[in-house]
Amino acid sequence: MNKMTQAVLAAAVLGACSTAVFADGEDAARGGNDGPDYSRCTELGCQKDIPITLEVPKKCTVTGGSPIVLSSSGGAKTSNYSIQSNTHYVLELTTANAGTSNSTFVKNTTDPTAKVTTTILTNGGSVGWGNSNHAGMGTDNYTVSVNNAATTAANKAGTYTDTYRIRVSY
Questions:
Q1: Is 30 part of any domain?
Q2: How many Å apart are CA 11 and CA 14, to the nearest integer?
Q3: Can you tell me the distance from the alpha carbon of 92 to that of 168, in angstroms, rounded to the nearest whole number?
Q4: Residue 135 belongs to what domain range?
Q5: Is 122 exposed, middle or buried (0-12, 13-18, 19+ CB in 10 A)?
Q6: Could you tell me if residue 102 is inside a domain?
Q7: pLDDT by residue (tens digit) across 16-50?
Q8: How many CB atoms lie within 10 A of CB 106?
Q9: Which residues contact 57 (CB under 8 A, 6 or more apart)?
Q10: How far apart are CA 19 and CA 13, in angstroms?
């Protein structure tokens, strides 16, 4: 064979082998073959699906709930509030003075032994005290009604307080 032809053939063979070795080294360094996935190709073309994901965290908001000022003449006073939640939730209703009893009281801020009895109902009594399960997934509206008897001269003068507590958990 001609020396020139031998040189060209030798260069071609050595070049192809070194390229293959170099390519195998790159694939090994990357941890495998990340080349095209020809298994999903047909004579019409190729395809690939790219997943799209959004994680929405559980969330709730409690709005409304204006302060309730009872009358010394007695009667019922109300306040409205809403709970907006994007998931099922547990509603816990308590009062600072009586926990989960609807027969609660307001107490004098300077003499905690001086009390005036109250009755508290949520949505007319349809929502119980303590923990109750709710569907959520929207806005739930609530009305709290606090009723007290008229005060008399036997009640110590001063300001009487209690707190209606709303807790939402998932």
A1: no
A2: 5
A3: 6
A4: 60-66+75-150+161-169
A5: buried
A6: yes
A7: 555 554 555 555 555 566 676 677 777 888 888 99
A8: 22
A9: none
A10: 10
Structure tokens at 2: 């001609």
Assess if residue 81 is contained within a domain. Answer: yes
Residue 6 domain-assigned (yes or no): no
> What are the φ/ψ torsions at residue 17 (nearest 5 degrees)?
-65, -45
> What per-residue string of b and e applies to 66-104 under the rule 16 or more CB within 10 Å gives b?
eebebeeeeeeeebebebbbeeebebebbbebbeeeeeb
Compute the residue count for the chain. Answer: 170
Side-chain-side CA neighbours of residue 97 (13 Å): 22
**pTM strictly above 0.90:** no
Q: Look at the chain and report how many structural domains it folds into.
A: 1
Is-contact 98 104, C-beta < 8 A? yes
Confidence of residue 5 (pLDDT cuts 50, 70, 90): low
Query: Could you tell me if 160 and 89 are in contact, meaning their C-beta atoms sit under 8 angstroms apart?
Result: no
